[in-house]
Design a protein that fits this description.
The protein has about 170 residues and is α+β, with helices and mostly antiparallel strands. Helix content is about 20%, strand content about 45%.
Length: about 170
């Protein structure tokens, strides 16, 4: 089939409608095809502060997302002061009666200080959520991984700048 300059190709109304419907359906279906795990970011906290008193460490996490469910939480645990590695269990109690998150946390001294200016050492934190209660437990579920990079200071510990505590 040959076409002369200036001639037009004719399409039936049905073909145009079909092409438009397929294109529209593809644009609608594409976002629906994203796995649920990719749709929602894992809960995380941007701030960590610790205080030590009577051999117990109280950790407070804040600027946590999703804020409506988590927000700020704190928990107390016992860990060997100055240990290069170890583990502990912690229960974070979330503000505004959002419930609790329980976790088993492991720590090991990281190589170098990274971005931890003025710190005595840096810890790599790993672990998993072991339980919880309330609305927080609907978001932070058993088995979810816990990860962080923590700057150990002389009097308090913080997250390594530019990192978050992922729950």
């Amino acid at each position: 089939m040959s076409y002369e300059k200036g001639s037009r190709m004719r399409f039936s109304v049905r073909v145009c409608t079909l092409v438009t419907a397929v294109a529209a359906g593809t644009m609608i279906a594409a976002p629906l095809a994203v796995p649920a795990s990719a749709a929602a970011a894992a809960p995380s906290c941007a701030t960590l502060a610790t205080k030590t008193a009577n051999g117990k460490i109280t950790a407070t996490v804040s600027n946590c997302t999703p804020a409506a469910v988590l927000g700020t939480g704190s928990g107390t645990f016992v860990a060997a002061t100055g240990a290069k590695s170890g583990s502990f269990n912690i229960t974070l109690t979330w503000a505004a009666k959002h419930g609790t998150t329980k976790g088993n946390v492991k720590f090991v001294t990281a190589t170098g200080l990274g971005k931890c200016k003025g710190a005595t050492s840096r810890l790599t934190i790993t672990g998993a959520v072991t339980g919880g209660t309330g609305t927080a437990f609907k978001t932070v579920k058993t088995g979810q991984k816990i990860t962080a990079s923590v700057c150990v200071g002389k009097t308090s510990d913080t997250l390594e700048p530019g990192t978050t505590l992922k729950i």
